[in-house]
Design a protein that fits this description.
- The protein is an alpha/beta fold.
- The protein is built from 6 helices and 10 strands, in the order βαβαββββαβααβββα.
- The strands form 3 sheets. Strands 2-1-3-7-8 form a 5-stranded parallel sheet, with helices on both faces. The chain has a 3-stranded antiparallel sheet with strand order 4-5-6. A two-stranded antiparallel ribbon has the order 9-10.
- β9 and β10 form a beta hairpin.
Length: about 180
Amino acid sequence: MVAVGANRTPRASVLRYAEQDASAIAQAFTSGLGPLGDSDVTLLLGRQATSHRLNLALGALANNPPEYVVIYFSGHGNTDGTGLADGHYHFATLAKWIARIGAPYSITILDSCHAAAYARHARVGLGGLAGVLDLPWITALASATPGSRVIFSTAADRLASESDDIRHGRFTHALLRALVNAP
């Protein structure tokens, strides 16, 4: 798993909870309920959430492809890509890495404004989650048909939001609640 959270992106307002969201997702996947160990996660937060470090993490996965790969991003986004501490990371670049990694099962989770614009750049079809919501999330991940799945916090023309009341991005908060409360 590679989890990325960037509160500060050049030429954008400062976010409050993107880094916390990435940490919380990594924790959910490595807790007693999650399918991964601590050594299976690369966590890139704040100033470490750079294009160079993300490419290194994705390259390591490509050099030794796991059966399952999860990529999570929380931060700013636009219709072309995501914001990192050192600038813009294009959706097409991310899609090429995912294809190069070639894991039989991959999930990319994007919690940013315009997240579903990834589908245009990655040339992926959009499908539903029918049936998946009826299974515990670990079982759903393990029994999914091979392929690449993408979960978007927003439509391509929508903005994501954070909440001081819940101290998370709204999408990630809901995702965490679903993962922790899964049957």
